[in-house]
Amino acid sequence: MAERGGGSRVVIVMGVSGSGKSTVGARLADLLGVPFLEGDDLHSASNRVKMASGHPLDDADRRSWLAAITEWIRTTASSGHGGVAACSALKRAYRDQFRRTGANVWFLYLALDREVAEKRMTRRRGHFMPPGLLDSQYATLEPLHADEPGVTIGVNGLESPEEVLAAVVRAVSAPER
Known about the structure:
This protein is an alpha/beta fold. It has one domain: P-loop containing nucleotide triphosphate hydrolases (Rossmann fold, 3-Layer(aba) Sandwich). About 45% of the residues lie in helices and about 15% in strands. The two termini are about 15 Å apart.
């Protein structure tokens, strides 16, 4: 990972809705002293309305959203300070698009069971993504592949963001085998 306040790695905190991407991503960015992007903020109004009404996005809907995140990655990496973004990044093709920027992109996949995600989503308030769209997210999800830079953290039994962040730090700090 990037050193605090330096380096140009861009970490994409990925996973389905309810996995903790936004909370963990913001805390990780704070820990590293780098900018944080809430990827949901870049969704168009029409995408938000579509999801809020219970309809999943397709690749055409995601195109401009992914382009905006890709541009943020380019800009952030060129700043020399790196950054952290929360983005579902459900498909390998989306992650490959981010990597084609030439930036040092690294993925942190927060993996959890559907039942846990649904429980978390029903507790949160004010988010446009309804629990009814979880099935479509799991159907679309292509977990991080072994040849993609990053790590998968199982977050099923981790309830607090602090526990997840501690698991992330342990995983990232572990010597490579």
